Amino acid sequence: MGVMLLTWLWCAPALASALIAALPSRRLARAAALMASAGILAYALYLGRPLFDQTSLAILEMPFPASAFGIRYTLALDGLSFSLCALTALLTLLSLAASWKSESSQGFWSCFLALEAALMGVFLSRDLFWFYVFWDLALVPMFFIIGLWGSEGRRKAAYKFFLYTAAGSLCLLLGLLSLVVLHQRVTGIWTWDMAELALSPGPGRHAPWIFALLFIGFGVKVPVFPLHNWLPEAHTEAPAAGSALLAGSMLKMGVFGILRVLLPVFPMQCWRYLPWLGTLAVINILYGAFCAMAQKDLKRLVAFTSVSHMGFCLLGIASMTNVGLQGASLQMINHGLSTGGLFLLVGMLYERTHRRGIEDFGALAEKAPSFTFFFGFILLSSIGLPGLNGFVGELLSLLGMAQSYFPLALLASMGAILAAAYGLPAFQKVFWAPAGPGSVSEKVMDLDLREQLILSTLCLLILWLGLSPGTLLRLLQPTASLLARPV
Amino acid sequence: MGAPLALIAGPLSACAGLVLVLLLGLRKDHPAPHNPFIERCAAMACTAIGLFFLLNAPEAARTELLRADGWSRCWQALFHLATLGLLATIPLKGERPLILALASLAGLDFLASADNLLMLFVSLELMSLPVYLLVWGLLPSRKSLEAGIKYFLTGAAASALFLFGLALQYSASGSFSLHGERSADSALGFALMCAAALFKTGIVPFQFWLPDVYEASEPELAGWMSTALKAAGLLLLARLLFASPAVPAALWLSPLAALSMLLGNILALRQQNLRRLLAYSSIAHAGALAAALCAWTREPHAAPAVIFSYLSAYLFMNFGGFLGLRLTGALCVQDLSGLGRRAPLRSAFLALMLLSLAGLPPTLGFLAKLYVFLDLLQAGDKFLAAALALSSLIGLGYYLGLVRRMYMDEPAAAAEQPPICSRMAHSLIAVLCALACMLGGLYPSMSTDIGSVLAAPAAEGSVR
After folding, report:
1. Distance CA A461, CA A459 (A)
2. What is the predicted ipTM?
3. I need a labelling partner for B223 at 20 to 30 A (CA). Which of A167, A308, B276, B310 fits?
4. Average pLDDT over residues A241-251
């Protein structure tokens, strides 16, 4: 069985979560959670070393023989999995650090680590059974995080989030099971292994149905345009740390699923539906941007930017080119950093004033200069300023789409302009415009050292990825070139 | 152990327990209402010894009336396990409930090994009659009297249907054998007998008695009825379907299964009384089991192990669910408000059971549901698979609603909070159920392992 290095990546947070739930005091739980998540981040980076050195493309782990129906516990860490695992570990650490002052009970800290465990499991699994187990498992801690520690409308938001995404999960389950059963019928082999199911001859004439089921299952998480309804509410009502992880890591599950399951299994269908997928992506980009423009609540605004930015991920995937797919993968990481950061920033503002409305603030720049700096910096990354990370991801996605379907790329590039149109006015109103009558800007204290440290970590990463995206792209490139359409 | 003993090891242990409890009851002159600890232990010991024999007696045997093979042993073990849970937790004032439960267990055991229509009928009666009394007498009140009578009347109707079908079959073929010749008359006979089995299982359209009866019963009893008796009904149905003539079962059973799943879950959405809610949920689960049965009749390779795995999973999670109601003392949905803060461990247990019933991974309930899905898809039954998915989603609506209420609602005023039960036996069994539900789901080979035991053949040469 060996040491099972990869298994520890999800087992460690799971064990830590159980331990923390049993700790006697809140302060102890808080410290333990922070230390555990820091340790897990370090461990994840340690595991990724051979990928950075390019001494190996992936680390595979299959400690047990296949059991009934060919289910076999298989984990693998390649560049894409590693980037997402590291992102999850980082965001968990930063989110927990950002919630340091909240007086939440042991359960709060425990839920975050449980969520981390499930997310790691999703990003590591290569066996569809275990993939689905982790996929659904991630819902439960998030349900409690939103429902117990969110703001006023939390109960309804949590319920809606759970049912909506569980409906998606059921579609996914049906799709995956049909795929496995049909594969068995045609080839006589029971297997749940993603690699073996790639290009499976099983679906045959059922392919469109299975494709649709899987696409809905993954699409709810992304979220793809008509299935996005759960998102604004869940993001707005969740506690800041919860929104950061929800947007930063959980939405990536959908894109990851498309990259790992949908594309390898159904390349033909994907090529055929390319214009439609691209259209959906463009709708996502533009719709998210227009909705964001109309928001009066900062958190809702950030939530809709999420919809818009995830559209770029989808766009890159829909292009089915090497460049586009790399862009989509990079955009996942970028979005995690910038949107995660924005949610944390809005959360810090909320912690101080218990307000989130754009109208509630004004002239914050005088009162809180370092807050202004960080907000501006991360917002610019999100808008896609050249030199910061967002620009690279969006540019590559657009380039990819331009190679395969130019008009859609043209339309999608509107999204980059719209991003400035919704981001900058909001920023201007909150930070520079004179404070209105109902303004609570007076109450805002500037960031303390802890918060500055959290945000500077994010900012450094944003800058690094913006100036030299090569390191990360090298990690993401193998997956992309594998899935790209042969030219 | 000789072959004849292998045939009756299960029922024998139940009857031995029954006699033992009766004898122990003779000790006292005027038995005042009390909690008979020794009698309870004796009954449990006999049931456990029976279970031990069943698990360790690989011998197969067969007579005209009974057969002992892997199949019968598995079902008997399931019944013994469920009854152990009941005997350990049932609230007692005097030893009578123990006697009734053991008598019913003997009936269940016979049902599992019966290989003859007449034997099926006799064991069915032996199984049912004590339960009517249990429902009525365990908690004497107007409500339980009403439920007891209702249960008795519907049960009697089911028995009458079965008997009538039996007579028709006998007149058509001249034998009580399950494997005899078939004719048009016997088709009607089998239809009537299947209706009786549907009654016992609580599948639409014969589900109407179930919520009333569960509502009036003690939670432990309802938990046992919803698992052991439902399993018995399903066993009966399976036996009949595989002996039944030309009409393919999938034709009439699959719409009933779909209806049960959907109707059970939709009606459960609006329930205020928790036992009624679980009763409707059990109707939905019976529908899922019937769906698996349909797949089985279409595709014989799709193993009966799927049904058995589902039932064993259901035993832990539904008995655990009812146990959770007892442990938290909650009667109606409002009682659950804020329970998470008041009794964290108990609510965590109840929440785990509910999530397992809802079929969320990585619980045992998920694995059970996954098997049924696989089974249906293998048999090519997309319609039932879609119905199961839809009903799971609806089910999630109320299971999750209960969890939300426990953790996210404000607690009721202190005066209105129900008392919490803290008996050792309850807590112990709750821990067992919780462990089974949490760890079982991570063991995907369950169904093939069960399948290999189930398929152990009966002896070729018959013993007279």
Report:
1. 5
2. 0.90
3. A167
4. 93
* DSSP one-letter string for A124-155: HB-BHHHHHHHHHHTHHHHHHHHHHHS-TTHH
Q: What is the rounded distance in angstroms from the CA atom of residue B299 to the CA atom of residue B289?
A: 15
Q: Are the beta carbons of A427 and A375 closer than 8 angstroms?
A: yes
Round to whole Å and give the CA distance between B293 and B198. 12
| Chain B: closest CA distance from residue A486 (Å) | 34
| A81 confidence band (pLDDT: 50, 70, 90) | very high
Q: What is the average pLDDT across B73-89?
A: 93
CA nearest to B61, candidates B109, B7, B116: B7
CA distance linking residue A420 with residue A262, whole number of Å: 33
- Quick count: other Cβ atoms within 10 Å of Cβ A168? 24
pLDDT digits (tens, 9 = 90+) for A247-256: 999 999 999 9
> Which member of A68, A162, A174 has the closest CB to residue B447?
A68
| Pick from A295, A463, A303, A288: nearest CA to A374 | A463
Which residues neighbour B124 within 8 Å (Cβ) at sequence distance 6 or greater? Answer: B107, B111, B159, B162, B196, B200, B232, B236
* B380 at A interface, C-beta within 8 A: no
Q: Looking at the predicted structure, is the pLDDT value of residue A464 above 90?
A: yes
Enter the pTM of the model. Answer: 0.93
Q: What residues contact residue A260 under an 8 Å CB cut-off, 6+ apart? A: A80, A194
Smallest Cβ distance to A159: which of B404, B441, B447? Answer: B404
Tokens of B439: 């760890």
Q: Are B237 and B244 in contact (CB under 8 A)?
A: no
Interface check B435 vs A, CB under 8 A: no
Q: Is the peptide bond before B362 cis (omega within 30 degrees of 0)?
A: yes
Contacts of A184 in chain B (CB under 8 A): 378
For the cut 50, the answer to whether the pLDDT of residue A410 exceeds it is yes
Is the pLDDT confidence value at B53 over 90? no
DSSP 8-state symbol, A260: I
B385 vs A contacts (CB less than 8 Å): 174, 177
Give residue-wise pLDDT tens across range A273-302.
888 999 999 999 999 999 999 998 999 999
- Give the mean model confidence (pLDDT) for residues A34-57: 89
pLDDT at site B244: 66
Buried b (16+ CB within 10 A) or exposed e, A272-290: ebbeebbbbbbbbbbbbbe
Q: Phi and psi at residue A357, in whole multiples of 5°? A: -70, 145
Where b means 16+ CB within 10 Å and e means fewer, A121-143 reads bbbbbbbbbbbbbbbbbbbbbbb
For residue A260, the distance in angstroms to the closest alpha carbon of chain B comes to: 21
| Nearest chain B alpha carbon to A178 | B377
Q: Is A2 exposed, middle or buried (0-12, 13-18, 19+ CB in 10 A)?
A: exposed
To probe the interface with B, which of A131, A139, A144, A193 has the most B CB atoms within 10 Å?
Answer: A144
B418, B273 in Cβ contact below 8 A? no
**B26 pLDDT above the threshold of 80:** no
Distance of CA B437 to the CA centre of its chain: 17
Distance of alpha carbon A173 from alpha carbon A180, whole angstroms = 11
Q: Which residues face A338 on adjacent strands?
A: none
Residue B177: helix, strand or coil by DSSP? strand
- Residues A364-371 have a mean pLDDT of 87
